[in-house]
Structure formats: C-alpha cells, structure tokens
Specification:
Layout lengths: L1 E11 L3 H12 L4 E4 L9 H5 L11 H5 L7 H6 E2 L5 H11 L6 H20 L4 E3 L4 E4 L2 E4 L5 E3 L2 H15 L3 E3 L4 E7 L2 E9 L2 E12 L8 H8 L7 E2 L8 H8 L4 E2 L5 E7 L24 E4 L17 H9 L6 E5 L19 E3 L2 H8 L3 H14 L34 E13 L2 E2 L6 E3 L5 E7 L16 H27 L1
Parallel strand pairs: 1-2, 1-11, 2-8, 3-6, 11-21, 12-18
Antiparallel strand pairs: 4-7, 5-6, 9-10, 10-11, 13-19, 14-18, 15-16, 16-18, 17-18, 20-21
Helix pairs in contact: 1-7, 1-13, 5-6, 6-13
The chain binds flavin-adenine dinucleotide.
C-alpha cells in the first residue's frame, strides 16, 4: 500500500453535503481532499439529480426576498406566500416522520435552515421561485406546502456552483477514488484507505467526513433491509450510493441508527432508466400530479386515497404501495378536465403516456382487467360528492362509499380524451444510517464521539422516518455538511493545541 501526503480533512463524496463540508472546512483554514467513487462525468451524487427544491424556515415574504435572485416589487405583488416559521417546519417534519425524528438533529436542521440558505447564496448558489409549488387564483400565484424556493437549474445548478467554490478555495478532488476503510490510531481517525488506480492508498489525515450517501443503489442491502420487493426498484439517482460510508463508519466504531427498513421513494415513469442517467438529470421521470387524478393497478382497481394530502406528503408512501402491485406497476389516470393542471414532467418526450377516446379503449391499451377497470371508474364517478373544487387547499371534495375513499379533489373521470401514465417505484434514498449529534460527530453506541469522524447528508441516521418533507434532504445536506466542516476544523485546532 502506498501512502500519500497529509490532509487536514478528507471528505468521502461529492454531493451537496460533501461540497458544503469542503467549503465550510476550507473557510476555517483546513486543507481538504474530496474523494469521489465515480468518474468526473458522474460526480455530484443524488444532489446532481435533484429538482433543487429546498426547504427552510423563512418566516415571511422578507425571508424569500433575501434568498431569491432578482426578487422585485412586481414579484411581491403577483404572489402570495404563506408564512413558514420554525414551528411550521417542525410540525411538518414531525408529522411525516410520525414524531420519530431525533429532536436534537431536527432542531439543528430547522434552526439553521434560514442562515444556511443565505450561506449557500454567499457561496454562489442561485435561488429562484419554485414553479411547481403554486396554483393561480384571481391572477395571483398562491404558493403552498412551505417549499417556495428552489436552486436555479435544479440540482445541476446547485452542484456546479458548489464545485466552482470548492475549487476556488483550493480543495483537491480525486475521481474514481472510493474510500474503502478508515485508519485509527489510539482511538482517533488518522487516515482513510482509498482505492485509487486499482491499488489501495493510505491517505493520512486528521479527520474524515463521510458524506457518501445511503445504500439505495445496493440491491443486496435493499433486499436485506427494505424487503425482497425492492430487488428491482428503479434507482432514481447515483449508482454509487451503495452503503460504503455506513460500513466504514460502523467498522470504526460508530453506531448504526435510524429506520433501516425505511426509505424515500417516488412514483416514477415505468420506463425510466434503471439507475440515474447523468445525461437526463433534473428529476424528469417522477410522476406526482396524482392528487388531481386516479391511480389503478393492473387488476383495474384503485389501491390508495389519491387525495389524502398534498403530493409532498404522500408520494413517498404511494411509490412504495406501487411496488407491492402486480409487476410493480400502476397507472395514473387523468381526464381532459385536469390534464392541463399536470406538472411539466408529463409533457416531456421522456414521459410514457397512453391516450384514448373512450374508457374501453383506454383499458385495452393499458392491458388491465377491463371489466374491473370499468366497474372501478363507474363506482368512483357515482361516489363523487358535490362541493367546491379547490386544488390549492384540502377541499374535502370526496367520494363516499368506495374503498379507498378519495378524500380531497374528487372530480368525475368523464371527459375524453383520457390519459394513462404507467408508473412504478423509484428509490430516492435510504433512512437508516449513522448515529450523530448536532456537531455532526459520529457517535458510538454509548453516545461518545468517534474522535475525528463526522457524517453529513444521507449518512445522518435518525432524522427521517417513514417519509420526509420534500426539500429537506438538500437542506439537511447543507446544514450538516456545513456543521461537519466547522466541527472537523475545530477538532483539528483543538488537537494542535494539545500537541
Ligand atoms: C431524482 C431525485 C430528486 C431529488 N429531489 C430532491 C429535491 O428536490 N429536494 C431535496 O431536498 N432532495 C431531493 N432529493 C434527495 C437528495 O438528493 C438527497 O437528500 C441529497 O442530495 C443527499 O445529499 P448527499 O450529499 O448526502 O448525497 P449524494 O448527493 O448522493 O452524494 C453522495 C456521494 O458519495 C459518493 N460516494 C459513494 N460511496 C463513496 C465512497 N466509498 N467513496 C467516495 N465517494 C463515495 C457518491 O458518488 C456521491 O458523490 C432527490 C433525490 C433524487 C434521487
């Protein structure tokens, strides 16, 4: 094994969390090396593939003005953004995680979210209003769901800006150089072994930040922790997040923590690439307009309440439900009334769509059980209740007497032409990872820090359970990445003082 020169901090990964950590550690004067498992053309991790939606507690419109580029008085007049304070973010996080999110980590994420997004802006990241998060009403754009901001040019814009800043700060980056295991001396991290040019190289360092994702791209680990049905799930992002970081941390004494049998997943085009295609980023395959439509399986039956909540709060769950259906397949159905309301992804040439002028024809083209399908639609249409339809709020316009009930936004499915979009489940990231604290220190089973070891992003366990509020994956990477950089630099300074 060869030994390379000493760095202050080595960071495994080049996604949002790793880049945030690298910039933050450099700001503190540390010398930083980043390791990327893939080639340069496939850098940036899941962060590269994102839609760029990012959640933060902005309080009121003033908080948005400070972040969104070129926000002017005309913009302020033409939009309505409900306030979103610390308590709103906290409620959303606790609601979707069923109260299980670790309070220390949750508090750190939320209370640093506003400051961190402004820090990101200083690093060169541009933000725009999130065009997927509003409805038009009386000439105004009404934003909903606490997610009015996204990064300009989605995840691509985010990682490009952060790479530019990291490179400007002199951060060294090695590609096709996965971290393999950690070196410890006297209970302290003293290096990381890297697989470079087909040989193991020991890189000496004073601390390591693991920001190398979950195990979503590892078939065996998916099956072991999530269940056999996950064997062939589409991987929506990086092919490199195979759980290496979790293994390395655990071998070094860190405790595994969080929901290992849980993951984020999304209803995804049935014909999407099996792993993220770097030439097709921007999250173009997701299909999440179903709250205004219907979902049926190959047996021609509905199996979820499409209108249980806004899509941000249900798409992860419904992705998983789709995986349980025959051939892991379902169809989202929209008639001509609601089709203009669908998100942009439905218009792309990459979208698989079946169009028909009658329900009979639709059933034949979808190759579903026709008599069940026609019965499902007839019963559903019959059960739709009167009431005002309003997609910007949970309008309570429901069905009665069909199971599952559609509890909001129920309109009859009766205006041709009809559209069916075949969907399956795409895994986004896994929830179970490493135990850590609000200093991003990796902790052992007794809650003691593993000296010199930090985790960030998807490697933080105990933050998300069952689901996550959309946009908080990126914010978690930014907050804990930035924190890890600061903590690692402080640790190095404290070591220098002792030596
Ligand atoms: C299609 C899609 C859309 C999404 N949209 C959003 C969104 O709009 N908003 C949001 O908040 N979240 C979104 N997410 C979730 C979000 O991507 C993650 O929460 C976040 O990007 C995780 O950042 P990270 O830095 O922890 O991991 P990643 O960005 O995945 O980075 C992990 C890095 O580690 C590298 N790596 C792995 N193993 C090793 C190793 N052994 N050595 C060195 N490097 C290694 C990988 O190659 C990669 O570079 C989306 C995810 C996907 C897949």
């Amino acid at each position: 094994m060869t030994t390379k020169s000493q760095f202050d901090v080595v960071i495994a990964g080049t996604g949002n969390a790793a880049l945030s950590a690298a910039i933050s550690a450099s700001e503190q004067g540390a010398g930083v090396l980043m390791l990327e498992k893939g080639p340069k053309s496939k850098r940036g991790g899941n962060s590269f593939f994102t839609d760029g939606a990012i959640r933060f507690a902005y309080n009121d419109i003033e908080g948005i003005k400070n972040v969104v580029d070129g926000f002017n008085a005309e913009d302020a007049r033409s939009i309505e953004v409900p306030e979103y304070k610390h308590a709103h973010f906290h409620n959303d996080l606790m609601k979707v995680t069923q109260g299980k999110s670790n309070p220390e980590l949750a508090e750190h994420l939320i209370s640093n979210s506003c400051d961190t997004i402004q820090w990101m802006k200083k690093q060169g990241v541009s933000f725009v209003m999130n065009e997927n998060q509003y409805f038009e009403k009386e000439g105004k754009k009404i934003f909903w769901g606490g997610l009015p901001v996204k990064t300009e040019r989605k995840g691509i814009g985010l990682v490009e800006a952060l790479f530019a800043k990291a490179e400007e700060k002199g951060v060294e980056i090695w590609y096709e150089a996965p971290g393999v295991r950690l070196e410890q001396t006297d209970d302290r991290i003293t290096g990381i072994i890297v697989n470079k040019d087909d040989q193991e190289t020991l890189v000496k360092c004073k601390s390591v930040i693991l920001a190398c994702g979950g195990f979503e791209a590892n078939k065996e680990k998916r099956m072991k922790h999530l269940g056999d049905e996950w064997e062939n799930a589409i991987v929506r992002g990086s092919e490199y997040n195979t759980g290496d970081g979790i293994r390395m941390a655990a071998e070094a004494g860190a405790a595994q923590a969080g929901q290992y049998d849980g993951c984020h997943a999304h209803t995804t085009d049935f014909n999407a690439p099996k792993v993220g295609d770097y030439s097709k980023p921007g999250d173009i395959y997701k299909k999440s307009s179903y709250p205004v439509g219907l979902i049926v399986n190959q047996e021609g039956r509905r199996f979820v309440d499409e209108g249980a909540d806004f899509r941000n709060y249900t798409y992860a769950k419904y992705g998983k439900e789709t995986l349980k259906q025959t051939n892991h397949k379902a169809f989202q159905l929209y008639d001509s009334k609601v089709r203009p309301m669908l998100r942009k992804e439905y218009e792309l040439e990459e979208a698989t769509v079946i169009k028909a002028d009658s329900l009979d024809e639709l059933a034949v083209k979808m190759e579903v059980d026709k008599s069940n399908f026609l019965e499902t639609i007839e019963n559903y249409n019959h059960a739709v209740q009167d009431g005002e339809y309003n997609p910007s709020i949970k309008d309570g316009k429901s069905t009665k007497g069909v199971s599952p009930e559609k509890t909001n936004w129920a309109l009859k499915f009766d205006e041709a032409p009809f559209y069916a979009y075949p969907v399956t489940c795409g895994i986004t990231f896994t929830f179970g990872a490493i135990k850590s604290n609000n200093r991003a220190e990796a902790l052992d089973t007794s809650g003691e820090a593993v000296k010199g070891l930090y985790v960030a992003g998807e490697m933080v366990g105990e933050l998300f359970y069952h689901n996550y509020p959309g946009g908080s994956g990126l914010m978690s990477g930014s907050v804990f990445g930035r924190t890890a950089g600061i903590s690692a630099a402080e640790y190095i300074h404290s070591m220098a003082a002792i030596e």
